[in-house]
Amino acid sequence: MSARQANAPAGSPIAEALAKRRVVICVGSGGVGKTTIAASLALGAAVEQQSTLVCTIDPARRLANSLGLKELGNAETRIAPSQLAAAGLPPGSPLFAMMLDMKRTWDEFIERHAPPNRKEQILANRFYRSLSSVLAGSQEYIAMEELWQLRMHRDYRLIVLDTPPAGHAKDFLDAPNRVLDFLDNDAAKWLLTPALTAGKFGLHLFGSGSGYIAKTLAKLTGAETLEHLADFMLAMSSMNESFRQRARQVRALLASQETAFVLVTTPQLERLQEAVEFHTELLQNHMNVAAVIVNRVTAAPLPRDWSDASELQSPLREKVQRTLQENSALADEDAKAMAQLEADCRPTPLVSVLRMEQEVHDLKGLWKVAGALVTGTTPAAPSESV
Amino acid sequence: MDKRLWIVSGKGGVGKSTISTALAVLFASRGERTLLCEVNASDRFANLVGGGRVGPEIVALADQLWAVNLQPEASLREYALSILKFESIYKAVFENRLVSYFLRFIPSIQELVMLGKIIFHVEERLESEEPKYQRVVVDAPATGHAISFFSIPRVLINTVPPGRLSREAERMRLLLENPRITTAVLVSLPEEMPVNETIDLAAGLSERAHVQTDLVVLNGYVEERFTAGDIEALAAAPSLQRAAIQHRAEAASSSAFRRRLAEALARPVVAVPRLFIYPFGRGAVDAVARTLEPALKALG
Q: pLDDT tier at A193 (50, 70, 90 boundaries)?
């Protein structure tokens, strides 16, 4: 396929999103190929001479290598013209890639927003150090913090964001609220009031009206654990206003016309329900969903394949026929799932990407996926998609 | 091969539930009383085995086969009741919305109580003093979570002062770290990310949780079918040739990743072939169980 073939046919939902939006967010559960899709979308846009950044979370090593990420760490890195040229792509395509570093982004946030006398205390707290497990949603939150920083302070025409695996849209959309909920709600205030007034946690918790509850809790968790947690919350609560403001800003960016989501899934029946719910939640939250991308779809054999196969010599004939039968069974299952998905996500277009002959781990592979995404038509009636 | 606690883990989406169910079905089919545990997941066992839905109470799925879906709230309640003894205290404390809020943010408490319940069932005895369940198979959380999940006793022992909690943790630790009782079965797919994760997972379980891996299951394995000569012979039918090339590529990565796993982990790797059985239910689980059987015998 030549580079020019990616020129979008009119009405391709992906091409339209890449041309019109400033931010495209890939969401979906783990193992569906989100990172590959995100990198392909970015490549597709960059080849059209749009300066594009793909921000990924945890790419496969070979994919990271092909994007030149490994040796250059987490900084935004331009894909070298020589790499693009080697894959037969326009060498000047302005494609940039970076890996999201959760720890560094959090540290920067603390540096920026924490009062100077609290910084050390926060950075040294053991709950802060295991923040991602303490705070549900902190990974998602920090991905959005990074997105916000990039959108405000860089001038890429398009940013494609890969996201942590999530089974539900709310894991992602509510992340800022959940961080806020942790720091700033009635329960936290009530438990922390003695500490807040004393400026210190310690014995106050156990001596106050909440003492009975705190003591019982401490039986299970150890008093020290509670104290560490309270210290952490106390220190973090000095930043509530910053969190609240950022939550509003991010929410506005996500819902704005410059942003679109693509929901990535695979056609297995067991993933279906999850994808449909995810899609519904996105719409309920007034997000723009450019497309549902169904990755690794098996194409049904053509009628011609069966007749060609019957003319082969044994044992090649049996080998080919068995392969066609297997592909046919897979394709039937995929078709059922896709028809269901199409009906349940209407009117959002479905874009399918056929299973590649090889695992995608280089720019050539990404370019093939980009071609499938950009030229993908809708609805891809699965029984005829050959 | 008298190991009692079988921990099945791997990257998300590799077929952990299928492999744990197949293991449990295999044990039960030999007449061993077997408990299959899911950890706070959407119930997959019922679809795989047939039988009713599986919730936080143990249910019988088949002859000699029971299942339970561990949930943090239910496990915490059981655990707290066993310590506090009185329902009224439990209610006053744990059903307090302030406390439930706090508990949500203490990272290991949920995992601790679920792990505690698993260990309880491993140690549970009948009146005859025989183990109530001869085998406990855990459909464990995925990679990163599995390592922290099974490291909890060690982490606790190092962080909490001596007392009830640290004694509990010590008891759990001894059981998990005993390779005659506990074993990990790691599930992978013949693809780069799952294989990398499997290698990291085996190291993490060994170094951080001191849990020994004895078996690796390479799920979705594709045996070579087309030779290079076959591919050439199909030149006249490009569409068939593409299908053959794809199959050959899948077979090549299957065997390459099998070698890589075997070399990196120095453990037996059982290949479970990709199955084309729809819907994927009891019949498919039985087929998987049959492919696992020789490997389990060899472990013995």
A: low
Give how far A222 is from chain B: nearest CA, Å.
6
Beta-bridge partner residues of A60: none
Q: Is the pTM of this model over 0.90?
A: no
Instruction: Judge residue A310's burial from the number of C-beta atoms within 10 Å of its C-beta, 0-12 exposed, 13-18 middle, 19 or more buried.
Output: exposed
The better pLDDT of the pair B51, A355 is held by: A355
Q: Give me the residue from A62, A165, A323 closest to B192, CB to CB.
A: A62
Q: Band of the pLDDT at B13, cuts 50, 70, 90? A: confident
> HEC states along chain B?
CCCCEEEEEECCCCCHHHHHHHHHHHHHHCCCCEEEEEECCCCCHHHHHCCCCCCCCCEEEECCEEEEEECHHHHHHHHHHHHHCCHHHHHHHHCCHHHHHHHHCCHHHHHHHHHHHHHHHHHCECCCCCECCCEEEEECCCHHHHHHHHHHHHHHHHHCCCCHHHHHHHHHHHHHCCCCCEEEEEEECCCHHHHHHHHHHHHHHHHHHCCCEEEEEEEEECCCCCCHHHHHHCCCCHHHHHHHHHHHHHHHHHHHHHHHHHHHHCCCEEEEECCCCCCCCHHHHHHHHHHHHHHHHHHC
Q: Does B234 reside within a domain?
A: no
With respect to residue B18, please indicate whether it lies within any of the assigned structural domains. Answer: yes
Mean pLDDT value across chain A: 81
Structural tokens at position A305: 């394949």
Query: For residue A80, is it left (φ>0), alpha (ψ between -120 and 50) or beta?
Result: beta
B102 touches chain A (CB under 8 A): yes
| pLDDT value of residue A384 | 35
- Residues B117-174 have pLDDT tens digits of 999 999 999 999 999 999 999 999 877 678 878 988 887 777 666 777 678 888 899 9
B237 at A interface, C-beta within 8 A:
yes
Q: Which of A378, A377, A358, A379 has its CA nearest to residue A368?
A: A358
Confidence of residue A184 (pLDDT cuts 50, 70, 90): low
On whether the CB atoms of residues A357 and B245 are closer than 8 A, the answer is yes
Question: Is the Cβ of B60 closer than 8 Å to some Cβ of chain A?
Answer: no
Domains of chain A: 3-116+135-173+257-384 (3.40.50.300), 179-240 (no CATH)
Q: Does B239 touch chain A (CB under 8 A)?
A: yes
Q: How many domains does chain B have?
A: 1
Predicted confidence (pLDDT) per residue in A60-85, tens digit: 666 777 676 665 456 888 999 999 99
User: Structural domain of residue B29, as residue ranges?
Assistant: 5-222+266-299
Quick check: is B91 in a domain?
yes
Contact A183, A236 (CB under 8 A): yes
Tokens matching residue B73:
């709230």
B160 token code pair: 């909490």
Q: What is the pLDDT of residues A115-169, one digit of tens each?
A: 888 888 888 877 676 665 556 567 778 888 889 999 999 999 999 999 887 777 7
Q: Amino acid identity, residue B219?
A: N
Pick from B11, B83, B192: which is nearest to A359 by CB? B192
Residue from A217, A332, A386 to probe the interface with B (highest B Cβ count within 10 Å)? A217
d(CA B31, CA A224): 47
What is the 8-class DSSP label of residue A5?
G
Question: Does residue B180 sit within a domain?
Answer: yes
Q: Which residues of A touch B249 (CB under 8 A)?
A: 357-358
ipTM of the complex: 0.85
CATH no. for residue B156?
Answer: 3.40.50.300
- Maximal CA-CA distance, chain B: 79
